[in-house]
Amino acid sequence: MNLGKTARAASHTAKALGLSLGSIMAAGVMAPQAALAAAASEPAAAATADAAASAGSYTPMAPTPGIGMPVDSGIGFQQQFSKLGEYGEWIHNSVLLPIIAVITVFVLLLLVVIVVRFNRRANPVPSKTSHNTLLEVVWTLVPVLVLIGIAVPSIDLLAKQYKPAPKGALTIKVTGNQWFWTYGYPDNGEFEVVSNMLNIPGQPTINNGVREVGSEPWDGPSHLEVDNRMVVPVGEPIRLQITASDVIHSFAVPSLWFKLDAVPGRINEKVLFVEKPGVYYGQCSELCGAKHGYMPIAVEALPRDKYDAWVLTHAGGKIDGQATAASETDYLPGEEPAGEASEAPAAEATAAAE
Ligand SMILES: [Cu+2]
């Protein structure tokens, strides 16, 4: 068989399918010749290529125990995997907790001093003191300064949390349903992923037709693992558009510092940013009915090439104009979105022309 000819034919077929032959092979789906043969065998080429792409290019990632999920006896935040999360955790651990601790200890000491020194036995004749101007100024001013000190980083964090996604950011649509989540990928061929909680062995079935947790090696904790995870690319801002189909739900993933209500008839938008590949779990966080506790969220963050391979495992999934995917540098908290910044040169050019 003329391999060169076959390769060209296969390449044409693959292009017609909207697939890059290189990407199929690079993803380690199969041996090059097998790939060529699969892609070249008309007319079932489409089905075969799809099956081939789904066969080996994507395997769900196994979560790291204790990462992206609650831990036994945990009392603090889950470890954070976004810049905003790290900032929020810093405000909590290094600003709020010390201030609260100092105030609490100070008030406790005052109470103890008062109980010991100013009781009736120690003061048979009560003092008639009623005013102390200096003291009153101090106990008014100091709390004001403390509150300002807390307000500055708090409002800063609040503002950064609602900074819009840069132009070109990948958009994922999240829909809350009673009682599961659906994830739409409009930038990748508009396929939709339906995500149900896995059933728990030995307990009443929650979702008919869904497998039991622990039946695959990559399964995470019960009540948190799902049949189809929300897969996202790592290291780039993602525009999450969140809505609901029936009642109010809330999309919340603690380790990614993300919580936003899913309201029927309305789209709420916020940037999701994941710094490190991994599996991060969350739960619906708005009481939404009988099975509210059984609609977990599992976010699997993958490097771009693996994300693309995952996209291609879906019917109609495609890698489109994301070559210029928004990069991390486009979304540093505190800076303007890249979209706005990119308009500046044009404005200068206009000014120069005048
Ligand atoms: Cu819900």
From TrEMBL:
Residues annotated as transmembrane: 95-116, 137-155
Lipid bilayer topology: Multi-pass membrane protein
Region of interest: Disordered: 322-354
Subcellular location, record wording: Cell membrane; Membrane
UniProt cofactor note: Binds a copper A center.
Residue span(s) of domain Cytochrome oxidase subunit II transmembrane region profile: 69-165
A GO molecular function held by the record: oxidoreductase activity
Catalytic reactions on record: 4 Fe(II)-[cytochrome c] + O2 + 8 H(+)(in) = 4 Fe(III)-[cytochrome c] + 2 H2O + 4 H(+)(out)
Chief localisation class: membrane
Keywords from the UniProt entry: Copper, Electron transport, Membrane, Metal-binding, Respiratory chain, Signal, Translocase, Transmembrane, Transmembrane helix, Transport
Record Pfam families: COX2, COX2_TM
Function per UniProt: Subunits I and II form the functional core of the enzyme complex. Electrons originating in cytochrome c are transferred via heme a and Cu(A) to the binuclear center formed by heme a3 and Cu(B).
NCBIfam families: CoxB
Official protein name in the record: Cytochrome c oxidase subunit 2
Native source species: Novosphingobium pentaromativorans US6-1
